[in-house]
Prior knowledge:
Elements: E1 2-6, H1 13-22, E2 28-33, H2 36-46, E3 51-55, H3 61-68, E4 73-76, H4 83-93, E5 96-99, H5 104-111, H6 114-119, E6 123-125, H7 134-143, E7 148-160, H8 174-182, E8 188-189, E9 192-193, E10 203-206, E11 213-218, H9 223-230, E12 238-244, H10 247-259, E13 267-269, E14 272-274, H11 276-294, E15 301-313, E16 316-327, H12 336-354, E17 361-363, H13 371-379, E18 386-391
Parallel strand pairs: 1-2, 1-4, 2-3, 4-5, 5-6, 6-17, 7-12
Antiparallel strand pairs: 7-15, 8-9, 10-11, 11-12, 13-14, 15-16, 16-18
Helix pairs in contact: 1-12, 3-4, 5-9
Amino acid sequence: MNxxxxxxxxxxxxxAIRDLVESDEVEAIVLADLxxxxxxxxxxxxxxxxxxxxxxxxxxxxxxAKVLEPVDVVVNCSMAYFNEGVMEACLKAGCHYTDxxxxxxxxxxxxxxxxxxAAAGLTAILGSGSAPGIVxxxxxxxxxxxxxxxxxxxxxxxxxWGTAAAPLVPPYSLDTILNEFxxxxxxxxxxxxxxxxxFAGAEEVDFPAPVGTQTCxxxxxxxxxxxxVAFADKGIRTCTFKLALPKRFEEKxxxxxxxxxxxxxxxxxxxxxxxxxxxxxxxxxETLTEAAAEEPPTLDDHKVLRVGVRGEKDGQTVDWTLETxxxxxxxxxMPCSTFTVGYPAALTGRLLGRGAIERKGAFGGExxxxxxxxxxxxxxxxxxxTATQKVAY
Length: 393
């Protein structure tokens, strides 16, 4: 199969590309990005004859579609802002699609393309990292074993015990995190989407070591947008997502957001118009690069994904709890934050290229990915899943 990684010069793409390079079923990998220098560096680092590059503006749908003509599957590791356009390019080129996730409102727009993908005989899996991604398939495992579904509750706990010289170390895309800090969350409660303030709904959750007890909050995410649609046939009434970020990181970013540093509207500074968020993103990237050159960070970050699903089976109310504990990946000298976003996306891309996901259209992984096959693939990279059920009284 031939796969294109859009945003191929970016940080979140690295794990996806490494997995595809190591996979015998992947024959060719095209890295598409506007950053030519970044593409060249990534190609050199991968040192694989499979890898080629294409410098293209992903907002130019026609140009991107030409790049995608020989491609079977696109793994989109760019920002959520570009997801719709990349999907349009896939429709023009006739290739399957997956991405690392789009927040609630973008996911809703992507779902609206489902009929067009189905008519073209194509599949688009929306959100294939860890959350969204792994958690969606965990939810599907329980869905397939229940006659009805009452609720799906998702918790994502992140801890980083490593050291780094940089003052701010984001666990994943800082641009995405800033959106999560500023945008309202939209959980699905009692059959409708309800607006919640960002980081409302504080809940203490006891996660397994090494993550431990964390405070989780409502956060804007795509799972409450896609899962209620996929599970509507079994009567779902509630779907929530709560996130816990590393505490020190959360405190520092909260301070910056309170100052208005995450804003996207220009402000006047000494006669010039400056976008605060652009300044923060540039400063964080610069300090991360400088710190890594002086003293490489120690890897010790971890994540727990927990999904609780309640429903009925044979007249009894049953609670399913599915969980996985994720770690940094020493084989690639890669933090958990990068590994667990890019690698699962590549896995979903390979399943699409293999024809293992049969349903056509656009939806989250909870609608179509075969859980047992998916979990077996995760296990090959050391990711285990536990699933327990009990009758609720």
